[in-house]
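This week, study the protein below.
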Amino acid sequence: MATATPCMDQQTAGPPTLFLAFAWGENPWKLGFTTGAAPRPRERQVAADECATVLEEMRRAKQRFGLPDHTRGVSGDEAGREGFGLQRF
């Protein structure tokens, strides 16, 4: 009996998306960027509370993955120290 293998065709999955994973800490913050399941993620660290640097790293990630500047970003995190830091940002 054969096992079905899922096929992820990112060409038909809709508009391109930049995925961002956050790991909050006192210092530094760890960031991981990808466009889906296949590409190797771009991993970076920034000083805590450096929101402008996070936005710059998002811009650089879009450039690295060949995405247009207007590409939407979707983020997730580990809930942070009090759970709402990313939502405030």
In short: The chain has one domain: 16-88.
